[in-house]
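Run: sequence + zinc ion -> complex structure.
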Amino acid sequence: MNSNDCIFCKIAAGEIPCSKVFEDDSVIAFLDIAPVSVGHTLVVPKGHYEELDRCPSHLLGDLIGCVGRIARAIAGATGAEGYNVLCNTGRAAGQVVDHVHFHVIPRVSGDGVFSHWPAGEYEKGQAEEVLASICEKL
Ligand code: AMP
Ligand code: ZN
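>> structure
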């Protein structure tokens, strides 16, 4: 599967240059052009799937395997103490490129990236309600 207007499909096909970190038969990884931190890398399936939940599970397995391996290499290369792995899905979640990708963002203590984690709490009965609803959909 491939989409003619998709920038990540073009990168995967070698039609647009990238700073390639890794490539195998089904996955390509390259430096993000607008990095949140030095070494910020995108891990992308070569096939065109718009959203994570549309991606076949065997391919997601391959992708996550690559994410772990690449994250370790990035941390080793940059001296990062940790990393975030993100998959923005849908406009509301900040997805801009409609081709599944995982961001691997190296982190050091006090770097100020994602400094606010807006933790909340459930109202009475709300957790039970959403839990039942989610389980029903699975
Ligand atoms: P998202 O908001 O999760 O869809 O993120 C898309 C990411 O793709 C952004 O972080 C962009 O900086 C990155 N990006 C867009 N075009 C390119 C490109 N040609 N090469 C590398 N990264 C890109
Ligand atoms: Zn694509």
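>> summary
The mean pLDDT is 96. The pocket of adenosine monophosphate (ligand 1) is lined by residues 7, 18, 30, 32-34, 42, 88, 94-97 (CB under 6 Å).
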